[in-house]
Design brief:
Layout (H helix, E strand, L loop, with lengths): L1 E2 H10 L6 H13 L3 E8 L2 E8 L1 H25 L2
Antiparallel strand pairs: 1-3, 2-3
Length: 81
């Protein structure tokens, strides 16, 4: 479970620069697609949206990870020739 600005900070730590104007519409689309759920909470008098991955989101993530691993393995195999 993560809130929007926390996600931006985590992505930045990994070298990705993402603005709230890019992130929030993407999260909204993922929520509409059933990949995430969203819960609004008040923390220190501020509204925050906390996002959690759904089972459908986990399944899609596993599928994408598998495809990326397959691609990586093919690239490494080509470089070993």
């Amino acid at each position: 479970e993560v809130f929007g600005i926390g996600l931006i900070k985590e992505l930045k730590r990994h070298g990705y620069k993402l603005s709230p104007g890019t992130l929030y519409p993407t999260l909204a689309k993922m929520q509409e697609s059933g990949l995430l759920t969203c819960e609004c909470r008040t923390v220190q008098h501020k509204q925050r949206k906390y996002y959690r991955i759904t089972r459908a989101g986990e399944e899609l993530l596993d599928e994408v990870k598998g495809k990326l691993k397959e691609l990586y393995d093919e690239i490494v195999k080509e470089n070993d020739k």
